[in-house]
Amino acid sequence: MRFPSTANSGEARVADPTKEEHWSVHVRDDASEFVRRLIDLSVEANLVPDRDFHYKWDEYADWQLDVLKQSGLQPKHRLLDVGCGPLRLGLKAIPYLEDGGYFGMDAYAPYIDLGAKLIVECGIEKRFTVLCSSTFEFERFGSLFDYAMAQSVFTHMSAGQIRECVRKLKPVMRPGATFLFTYFFTPHQRGIMYYGVQPMIAPRVLDTALFEEIARNESITFEASPLPHPAQRVGIFRF
Ligand SMILES: C[S@@+](CC[C@H](N)C(=O)[O-])C[C@H]1O[C@@H](n2cnc3c(N)ncnc32)[C@H](O)[C@@H]1O
Hints:
By secondary structure, the protein is of the alpha/beta class. It is 30% helix and 23% strand. β10 and β11 (233-238) form a beta hairpin.
């Protein structure tokens, strides 16, 4: 079996059937030890390593915790990670927050399983809560939140889902709570089949009108934040 290289190297590895390992994925030479392990665990979980997602793991993990702290996150706070994926933020936030302070929700079960493996891999012993749901059942956590994050998540939802997400966040966010999310402008809506199995929509976003409409309807505030992000724009809803 022949697999293309995952990034930049321009070569593919060919399986050697005489070895126990029947195929391999080429890992970029500059990948950190953690990213190498992440790729191994992803392959074991049948998740194809993705150039952007895996190789930018550290950059996007640090970005999320940094901007949350800049926005006032403290260890005593409760944090909700909307579309938490395999805990890219969680692996940083769980150790930072007091025991039990991190809550994540994601639609894609294999990511939640991978996140559980990464928690063990990183030796994290603090408690946290993660639920698999695509319908924003935040009340299932039985908690109120001071901060929420949706990094590269509204980029995978229709406008209707974004409206529903914020509507369902409102009862679980404390008055004054901050929700940071990322988005980018694109004139085209397109369907995505996440990892070939989970249907999602990348929305058409021409400007911030949708977020302003949501803020009006939910009686919250929206700010197009000047916070820099490696690839997207940052928005903030305050409840
Ligand atoms: C690009 S990943 C980002 C994951 C994570 N926020 C991070 O920064 O690593 C997009 C995530 O959004 C999740 N997602 C998409 N639609 C969702 C929905 N309706 N409810 C919960 N999660 C959703 C996907 O399953 C995926 O984990």
